[in-house]
Every structure is written in structure tokens, then in C-alpha cells.
Amino acid sequence: VKENNYRGHGDSVDQLCWHPSNPDLFVTASGDKTIRIWDVRTTKCIATVNTKGENINICWSPDGQTIAVGNKDDVVTFIDAKTHRSKAEEQFKFEVNEISWNNDNNMFFLTNGNGCINILSYPELKPIQSINAHPSNCICIKFDPMGKYFATGSADALVSLWDVDELVCVRCFSRLDWPVRTLSFSHDGKMLASASEDHFIDIAEVETG
């Protein structure tokens, strides 16, 4: 493993996301009101896109064509990954935490401060459903690579696992004591890592907990 530093942002870098199919590209969201696309082959920034607000969350669509970025004012902007221009902008009336497309690229998911998962159609961005997922702030969301499940993490220190097709919770993971900040599935979807302010990372077998 080689270690590289990627410098250019003028404020905190709050999230990064890899391109879904090109292993050389990733994008970062920053409080400096920009997002930046980086190429690991040159370790340089290949594009800087100015946004309206301080960015805190970012994701790349599964087809690689669109980048969605959310800011502190709960505005989500959809940016064309090739032209780097804004395609759509949506202001929400609730605290937007993490954002993600489903693997089929036809729905857009948001976790919010009221403990809900909001689901919009894509690209129309029409509300489809709101799921009461947690009793407190719903912080992070991740889809498994196989398209079978997605997981959410909450301020209640629980991770819940959801069936993508049925939109029902199939199990909960409860070994953490602090708000769950980030989640990651293994490449085959068999394991789920969750991290909080606890001083360890919990890795669970998805099927058994």
C-alpha cells in the first residue's frame, strides 16, 4: 500500500466516495463549498465544482453519471459527472444526513434527523415512501453490493438491516454503545462493518448478526 496526500480543499473534508466502476477516481465533499474529483494515478484533482453551501455528504450514482451532494442547509444537488454542471437541486424541510442511490439507479434514499428513511424516485425526485426506521436521528445508510439489503445506522446506537424489495427491517445489530456514524459492506455482501464513537469497529455476519 502506497500512501498519498490529496491537498486542495480549503476547509474540512467531510466525506469521500469512490467511483462505482472506475477504481482510479473518487470525489470529496468539503465545507469550502466545493466538491473535488481526484485521480489516484496522478494524485491530482481533475475537477473542482463550486456549490452553494458547505457540503457534508456525497455519493456517486451506480451508473457513474451523477454525483449527489448534500449541504448543511439540507439542499441536495445532483451534478453531471462529465460536464460538472448541476442537473437538479432539491431543498428538504428536514435534517438530511446521508444520501444514496439504490443499486438499480431508479430510487434515491435519504436518512433524516427524525429517524426516517425517505425514498424518492430517480430521476423524477418524487417522494415514494417514508419509513420510520429509528426512534432517534437516522445517520448513515449503505447498500450491499448484491442488491439484497441496505443498512442504516442511528443515534440510538443500533444498526438495522433492511430488505431492499420488501422495505422491511430483517434484523438489528446492537453491539455499539454510541451513535453509529458509518457503515460498510464487504465486497460479497456477507459482512457488515459499523463504526461509532466506540473505540472499535463492529464486523457482523449479515445473515446471522
Helix residue percentage = under 10%
Q: Helical segment tally? A: 0
What is the average of the pLDDT values?
A: 96
Structural class: mainly beta
Give the neighbour order of strands across the main sheet: 1-2-3-4
**Major sheet size, sense and barrel closure:** 4 strands, antiparallel
Per DSSP, what share of the residues sits in E-state strands of 2 or more residues? over 45%
What would you note in describing this structure?
With about 210 residues, the protein is mainly β. It has no helices and 19 strands. It is globular and about 40 Å long.
A few lines on this structure:
With 209 residues, the protein is mainly β.
Topology:
Layout (H helix, E strand, L loop, with lengths): L12 E6 L6 E6 L3 E6 L4 E7 L4 E6 L5 E6 L3 E6 L5 E6 L4 E6 L5 E6 L3 E6 L5 E6 L5 E6 L5 E6 L4 E5 L5 E5 L8 E4 L5 E5 L5 E5 L4
Antiparallel strand pairs: 1-2, 2-3, 3-4, 5-6, 6-7, 7-8, 9-10, 10-11, 11-12, 13-14, 14-15, 15-16, 17-18, 18-19
